[in-house]
Design a protein that fits this description.
The longest helix has 22 residues, at 49-70. With 194 residues, the chain is of the alpha+beta class. The protein starts with a strand and ends in a 24-residue tail after the last strand. It is globular, with a radius of gyration of 17 Å. α1 packs parallel to α3 (104-111). The chain contains 3 helices and 7 strands, in the order ββαβααββββ.
């Protein structure tokens, strides 16, 4: 069963100046959002395999849309993250089923590699609810310069029987990072941590 998508939204922000300093090259962050029908809305469903399959489908679709929106080769992606907002007729476990078991593998393929866990957030909300999609370096969780977030919001979603699913990808970390820690050039990318 594939996702019944009502709407797709793709947004890119580009930071060119921070605290009066030019950012060269500019840092770009993309978020791709799917508004989908929740096939489990309004009832308790023991087996959430349908939502798990939808998550797998959306991981690739949304990850590819982010990479395309950034205009980069997949291997040039730096950070990623995922989030979901469940409408009031759903439950948080519906978001968990989409985000956790299988969304990550196709997202990692879309950005080439992705040794680190994909940061995630989930919540319940009504139309216009926003969620911060947490970001972390795709290959090394300890890269502090890439701890960030980007907001995802769709004005007319989620309706009660919908789920908003967001994936974010960046081509860099925060502008002007200076809190130390593991640097991008030091990443080994073998354990997902360093």
């Amino acid at each position: 069963m594939s996702a019944r998508i009502r709407k797709l939204v793709v947004q890119v922000d580009e930071t060119r100046v921070e605290m009066g300093k030019a950012i060269e090259p500019p840092i770009r962050r993309a978020v791709a959002i799917a508004v989908i029908e929740n096939p489990c809305a309004g009832r308790y469903v023991e087996n959430l395999d349908e939502l798990i399959a939808i998550g797998e489908e959306l991981g690739g679709l949304l990850g590819e849309k982010c990479v395309k929106a950034l205009g980069i080769e997949p291997g040039r992606a730096h950070s990623y993250g995922k989030a979901a907002i469940v409408g009031e007729a759903g439950e948080l476990e519906h978001a968990a089923a989409i985000l956790h078991p299988k969304l990550g593998a196709p997202l990692r393929k879309a950005v080439e590699k992705g040794a680190a866990l994909v940061p995630s957030a989930k919540k319940r909300g009504g139309m216009g609810t926003a969620i911060d999609v947490p970001l972390g370096h795709k290959d090394a969780a300890y890269v502090r310069s890439h701890f960030d977030a980007i907001e995802a919001r769709v004005g007319d979603a989620p309706r009660a029987n919908e789920i908003v699913v967001a994936v974010a990808v960046t081509d860099g970390g925060r502008p002007l990072p200076r809190i130390g820690g593991l640097q991008v050039g030091e990443i080994q990318g073998t354990d997902g941590l360093r």
